[in-house]
Specification:
By secondary structure, the chain is of the alpha/beta class. It contains seven helices and twelve strands.
Length: about 240
């Protein structure tokens, strides 16, 4: 194993930041990386069944970091975050108080810790509403963030960065080799703390680009393709 690449999915392997369609060229290159000895781990706010299933069918071995870092899969399922019960209470509160503005998602029954909600109307307004509601109700151990696809409620001090660290500890131990991370959104910023090199696709949120070591010339999946080709040529 020469290196490991942690890749976000939505907005990074998909055609753009509003699509759920995977770029088949990006998929082919991810599999080529894996077959060349560069382990490719999917890192997403998605639930573990979605992410691990996707990884297996794409030929990437099933290695996954799901629910924004709360749940990892190496040789089994591991929940690496505390306060999961508080997150569930927060979700129930938001759904009860949010009326028709905040909507439950089909994935939540399959989620162990992080909970995902949809919204009606303005995204920023919905996020601020949820944050203020939790503040007023005295819920302190739950963070609120948007992936662009859903509003996520997850435990404080739990993020993609901490999930990657837990994964590396389980999967590679004390071995030392390059760790690359690539993403597109605010919830990818925390990967900075766990990666040798953090990469942002060109249409990523400004917060991610500001801390990235490298910003691709192309957006979303085309940016992933750019990086995959560089890794295959040992040019990164």
């Amino acid at each position: 194993m020469e290196a490991i690449l942690f890749s976000d999915v939505d907005g990074t392997l998909t055609l753009n930041r509003t699509s759920s369609l995977l770029d088949l060229e990006a998929v082919a290159l991810a599999r080529k990386l894996y077959n060349k000895g560069i382990t490719v781990v999917l890192v997403s706010g998605n639930s573990l069944p979605v992410l691990r299933g996707l990884s297996i069918y794409l030929g990437l071995g099933g290695y996954s970091i799901a629910e924004n870092g709360a749940v990892i899969y190496t040789d089994g399922i591991e929940v690496v975050c505390r306060y999961c019960d508080e997150v569930n209470k927060a979700k129930e509160l938001v759904l009860k108080e949010g009326g028709n503005k905040i909507i439950d998602t089909w994935q939540n029954p399959f989620r162990i810790c992080d909970k995902a909600l949809k919204w009606k109307g303005d995204e920023e307004e919905a996020i601020n509403y949820v944050k203020e509601l939790l503040r007023r109700k005295g819920i302190k151990d739950v963070e609120v963030v948007s992936s662009g696809y859903a509003i996520h409620l997850y435990p404080s001090n739990c993020n993609k960065g901490s999930g990657i660290k837990a994964f590396l500890k389980d999967y590679v131990g004390k071995k030392d080799f390059p760790v690359y991370c690539i993403g597109d959104a605010d919830n990818d910023v925390s990967m900075r703390e766990a990666c040798t090199k953090l990469i942002a696709v060109s249409n990523a949120d400004a917060s991610l680009k500001s801390v990235a070591d490298y910003v691709t010339k192309s957006p979303s999946s085309k940016g992933f393709i750019e990086i995959a080709e560089k890794l295959l040529k040992n040019q990164l």
